[in-house]
Design goal:
Layout (H helix, E strand, L loop, with lengths): L2 H16 L4 H24 L6 H14 L9 H9 L1 H4 L1 H9 L1 H4 L3 H36 L9
């Protein structure tokens, strides 16, 4: 684990303790997320599919939350903390890109074209999907009979 992430966790735990929060609960939630990530790593090692271990972990967490096997309150605060520090987690990747600039320079134009095209494609598909879901919900709402008004 990077030193900056360790520092951020320590600051969060200390702030939580000072504010009267339950540090043990935070650590338990973080441990649940780590165990799910480990299960994703195991699936990645066992299954011969080209799927990253982090995706397996996210799918396990999603399935657990959807089926209520893992209640949201069991990972809520630790998940919120990880989202808060997410920008800091991209620093090593950015530094790696700067170090690899010499290798990336010749293929920069094709990479940028791919990024722009896929971004526009994802935005379009996401928008169409959202419109489809909204129209479907509107039809469902219009087809449902209105509840009778309470008489006074």
């Amino acid at each position: 684990m990077r030193q900056s992430v360790k520092s951020a966790i320590l600051v969060h735990v200390l702030k939580n303790k000072i504010n009267g929060g339950n540090t043990v609960k935070f650590i338990r939630q973080f441990l649940i997320i780590i165990l799910i990530s480990f299960a994703g790593e195991l699936l990645h090692a066992i299954l011969p599919l080209p799927v990253p271990a982090s995706i397996y972990g996210l799918l396990i967490l999603l399935a657990g939350l959807q089926t209520k096997v893992i209640p949201l309150k069991a990972v809520d605060e630790a998940g919120g903390f990880l989202i808060e520090i997410m920008p800091m987690l991209f620093i090593p990747a950015g530094v790696g890109l700067m170090v690899s600039w010499g290798d990336l320079k010749p293929v920069l134009v094709p990479i940028m074209v791919t990024i722009v095209v896929t971004t526009v494609l994802v935005m379009g598909v996401s928008g169409r999907t959202a419109q489809f879901v909204l129209k479907k919900e509107e039809k469902k709402g219009a087809a449902a009979p209105a509840a009778p008004a309470a008489e006074e």
